[in-house]
Task: structure prediction
Amino acid sequence: MDATEPRVPVVVVDDLHVKYRVFASGKAAGNARSGLLNMTRGIREVHALKGVSFTAYENETIGVIGSNGSGKSTLMRALTGLTPPAAGAVYARSRPNLLGVGAALLPNLSGSRNIVLGGLAMGFTREEVETLKGDIAAFAELGDSIDLPMRTYSSGMQARLKFSIASARSHDILIVDEALAVGDKRFRKRSEARIRELATEAGTIFLVSHSMSSIRDTCDRTIWINQGVLQMDGPTDEVVTAYEGVRR
Ligand SMILES: Nc1ncnc2c1ncn2[C@@H]1O[C@H](COP(=O)(O)OP(=O)(O)OP(=O)(O)O)[C@@H](O)[C@H]1O
Result:
């Protein structure tokens, strides 16, 4: 992109807080006189995101990293609107899509039938699905297995098919959560290339991953979430190097 071109903001996250309320197994305090149980003692609050702020721009591919339980998935669910903020806000140009068609696929149907089903579930018309069917099957590289029921596929084969269906459509704002961790190395390289292609075709991509090589190969910018706080936000190389430094 030309450095003099004004950057178009696509997602603005403003001082976002997310809290979960969970019932912890503990001693519920009894109130002898009323006979009612005081359950409040058993409710624990997890403050999963504590004031996260950043702006994502058009055509950026942003890596999201952090250790287990740091708040990455919570942040992504908040972007899609699935998890409501306790405070702060998320503003987005259009609704961010989570890459995935998992729920729509049926194990007893063949790969080809699932391509049609998954395509329709993603909002393609019948004609569009018919046109794209061949490309989706070719990208998945499942050979003759494409005519076998999906329940006979290995988890890697299923992941390939899901990725191929989900990435057939370009999205304005796309969230890819660990989808690349499955599949073999060659497929991972091809899916990374496909993600870069989607980023140029359309808008903005968030890639959540524990694979630093995927993040380095795919993202120009990376945000690091640590215990619910935005620890660092900047060029991928700098952020990943700092992250790997503290994990050593
Ligand atoms: N539905 C939920 N109810 C209660 N607590 C939750 C819920 N989902 C997540 N949490 C808590 O919120 C915190 C952040 O979890 P989150 O799943 O966002 O982390 P993450 O960075 O995506 O982790 P991972 O790398 O393991 O996928 C954790 O402490 C987790 O236990």
Summary: Confidence is low (pLDDT under 50) at residues 26-32. The radius of gyration is 21 Å. Residues 65 and 224 are 5 Å apart (CA to CA). The pocket of adenosine-5'-triphosphate is lined by residues 20, 22, 46, 48, 66, 68-74 (CB under 6 Å).
